[in-house]
Amino acid sequence: MNKIRKGDEVVVLAGKDKGKRGTVLRVLEGQVVVEGVNRVKRATKPNPMKGTTGGFMDKDMPIDVSNVALFNHGAGKGDRVGIKTLEDGRKVRFFKSNGEVVDA
Question: Does residue 21 belong to any structural domain of this protein?
Answer without folding.
Answer: yes
